[in-house]
Amino acid sequence: MEERSKERSSSRKNIYRISGIVLAVLIALLLPVICGFLESGAYYLNVINYIFVYTIASTGLNVMTGYSGQINLGGAAYFSVGAYAVVILCNAGVPTLLSVVLAMLVVAFFGFLTAVPAAKLKYHFLALATTAVGEVVNNLLTVSPGGITNDTHGMFVKALVLFGFKFKSDASLYYLLLIMTALCLLFTWAFLHSRTGRACVATRDSVDAAGSCGIDVRQYKIIATVVSCVMIGFAGFLFAYLNRYISPDTFAAGKSTMFMSMMMLGGSGTLFGPFLGAVLITLIMELLRGIQGSGPYMQLTYGFILLIEMMFMPQGVSGAISDYKYKKDRRRMEAAGGDGKDA
Amino acid sequence: MLKIDHLTLHFEGLVATDDICMEVEDHKVTALIGPNGAGKTTIFNQIAGVYKPDEGKIYLDGEDITGLRPFEVCQKGITRTYQVIKLFSGMSVIDNVLVGMHTKLERNFWQDVFHSRSMRESEKEAFKKAHELLELVGLDQYADHPAGSLAYGQQRLVEIARALAPSPKLVLFDEPAAGMNLKEKNDLNEMIRRIIDMGTTVLLVEHDMSLVMNVADIIYVINSGQNLAKGSPKEISEDPAVIEAYLGRGEI
Predict the structure, then answer these.
(1) Residue B159 lies in a domain
(2) pLDDT at A121
């Protein structure tokens, strides 16, 4: 009897889950159409597009910091290298797809260069080193060798053309970014459920134990960093074609902090945490922007929210939810007199 | 299986292990005992590659493994547990065991990350084996729980399952019974026997004498970093030198 009712409740749960997913996918697909009917729909769609880009960037950061335990306060550096590399290559006449691939190789190489020494650093030393990387790259963009980045003037970016299709409207970019974000999350999931990904997470939780499991800790720290950098760089490329203008100012240290805050607020070390964080922080910023005379208080409110979050939900929204779920699960198992095997 | 030859290690003038010799035989449980600070864990750490001995050699099946790094020692077929638990506490219990299998899984990065068919197959087998190991230690119902959420005694068992995951030649248990209740100790006793049956040799450091006397085939006693005695549990329990080391010299 109990078995059957359990079965029924689990199948009902499955139905809920499936219908939830179907609904989410439908909404996601129809969103541009819905926005078309709203008064400031174009603005909403634009904000959503930025949320997608920031989701990819903070997901990338999450691979390095949330999952592999290496802090990175220079995320904007990889973001900007990805953006500038694609734009410069495209401007030089390289086909778009090829420039994206080449640019990602550039980001990977740059990530590798910083990862090799960084893999030896811990805690605040790593925080300092990554901050320095961020600053150095930003300065290089401002006073670039040969002026290839057009220095402080920045660069205007032509609309993205892929397979003969021009991604000019917010709606077309929306679908592109939706697919890219889904692919990035899927990739992150696949990465984490592989031998390589698990080894990266293991080095976060215990360097010693990871070593005794046959994991070359340094090697996996480098892998996590490179994968992370490529994802952040990829987000940078998408950002360039969404923003249509890039300059050193767009990639200032504030962006690094923003990616970090998104990851922390949503829940570092969780798959959907960065997405949640990107949604929350972008919305908070946009809402605050709308309030008259909020300028001076915007950063303050932002900081205050983060402070509260760190105090009461150190694992972020997503972490707090899964924590609650497991606690409930354990209580249920113990209440069932289940073999708690009390120590 | 394992041969330790005149192992010596100094820490800034302090002699941690002094000319230690011992041999671990295949398919037997060898126990290493001694008073606190005798250097038992230091010997473990030298076998596992955490410390590099100043002098002496360690051989695994005749192969010199002295001074290898910890992950290389694991690749040679030696795994371990820790005196102070070191789990991957943010990962699920089963993921902990799967990390233990690291050296046995698909090695090609791209096949692994993009879940190729061969990767999925090896992963399927790995999950099956991980569940078997969790059943062995009696934790299968917690497979999906974060390892850090388990009770202390259970966490020790996860460590044991993780150490057994790559089917090592030799497993080093550093005080496995610490923090366990009587029932868990009895289970552990049985478990160690089953580990031997699975074809893994066991070397353990343990303070719980009843467990050692029950489970060990050969006991090495060390004191102040030096070999003191070697023998069967019965011989050791009657050895006057051992009794003196444990109970102190009678001075009247």
Answers:
(1) no
(2) 87
